[in-house]
User: Fold this.
Amino acid sequence: DTEVTQTPKHLVMGMTNKKSLKCEQHMGHRAMYWYKQKAKKPPELMFVYSYEKLSINESVPSRFSPECPNSSLLNLHLHALQPEDSALYLCASSQERSSYNEQFFGPGTRLTVL
Amino acid sequence: SQQGEEDPQALSIQEGENATMNCSYKTSINNLQWYRQNSGRGLVHLILIRSNEREKHSGRLRVTLDTSKKSSSLLITASRAADTASYFCATGQPLTVDTGRRALTFGSGTRLQVQP
Assistant:
């Protein structure tokens, strides 16, 4: 299985809602990532998990809260988002011990904040 | 912050023609990778070239790397309508000094349109 899955595919939420994005991989990868991508822009790194521990937080606002329950799952909890947070949220994974860090991406969750 | 800048930003060609995209970067790198993204979808890894390599081929793809100029190019030969997508270069760099953990920094991307 060389696939990274993400749910939901689309999400519309109000600024007072709490929602979660989910990501799953079964490739045995021990590094997992969250990226945010605005239209016609490159992906921007948000968080990196290594062996289920948060290793990098790229100064992301606290209204985004990542969680890695186990080596196959990665969640992104959303609370009190702003309309400017509307974007495509991409999850990726890679072999932690690979120094070259080829990443496998999921299809993304298209988030709209009203 | 974006490490790489790509040009052109957009490219429109006819089927059968070759497409060349360029990527420039600013700091030293461990490797450079190219990814493809169909509209609104996830990214797909195409090819990786290490800093000690100068050229690499994969099917209809040819990548070159010039570390002295901090630039790379991606050539797609005999393009097809299905090649229509955005193409991103990405550089692997250390993000933390203590652990040397690496992550990817993406260039601005080239939107390729192949007309049938």
